[in-house]
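Issue: copy button drops trailing tokens. Both records pasted manually instead:
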Amino acid sequence: MAQAHHIEEWPLPIFKLDRELTILASSKMARTLFKESPVFTGLLEEGSRQKAVEFLNPARSINPIELTFLSPSDEPTVMDVHCQWQSDGTANAIAVPKDRHYNRVSEQLSNLRRRLNETNYDLLLEKERTEELLQNVRELSAPCIKIDHQRLLIPLFGLIDKLKMETVMPSILDNVYRQDGQTVIFDLTAMDDIDSDGLNQLNALIQSLSIMGIAISITGVHPNHAKRLHELNTLLYVTFAVSLQEVLLNEH
């Protein structure tokens, strides 16, 4: 095997190691291909480190072993490592690249890993855009429409749940306050259903409007809504009507 002063110009990665696998010397090729480390195991991917410790010793270094090295940019490279121990307690370890077919597969795997990382990032951006669109939909699920100088109409659309109510409540209260409304009419004609948490939030909204001195009417109630609405603790503050037209005519 090569002596330490001949290692520098070797055309393959070669290392001179002691029994603790400390790197005493290495070829220029080794320093170019792999990341820097004072110990041999620091050049390897985590899964190859214990394997190197077990096999790179005087008792078990006859046959080459396959180890995965890391490049300076942490790209993995699989190589066969041949090791020969000397009488002075040092070893020369040579890393030989796998054949071209193996390297091509390894490169394909690296490219796939990079594409998967890019795909995950794209999916994250798409998820954020979707969440933003859903937030916009929730905000539009309870528009505040001014009918005249005293009355505001708030139609509720789709499924009314806690998240949707938490989204629309601040804007409803702000609109009622800014427009100096005296009556708020909730129209449930387009409401699909309301779950328990959504009902609790609607209850809190009605209480807040009542504290502000706002008269509240609910119209467009479907039979399947009626049972739910009777669970409200604020029924004393609410007037029910069959249709929006009825509310408008009665309050006109």
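Record 2 (pasted manually too):
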Amino acid sequence: MKELLFKEETYRIRGACFEIYKEKGCGFVEPVYQECMELELSLQGIRYLAQPRLQLEYKGQPLKSEYIPDLICFDGIIVELKAVSELTDEHRAQVHNYLKASGHRLGLLVNFGHHPQIEIERIIR
């Protein structure tokens, strides 16, 4: 059986997400969850970068456009936050593009807007 990529780190990030959902529930806008996530990750001692800018290129040439994922945790896990009633393929594609742009292999798509529970999807490149 294959070992999960970033198993322990993912477990810790998921725990932070569950803690926020337990405290705030659904119904807030994404920036509220972004701020809560940054606070909770700090409280739990989880290394992260908030909204880092990813340089894009085309045929080896840098583009002016940048991608800005919500978080990169443990120097290798993209965490994209949503506050929508249902995740869509566009949300999943966004995480795939962040993974491609960053070179990272694992992304977590976290939806705080779903009721009655939080949605968390693992996306692997």
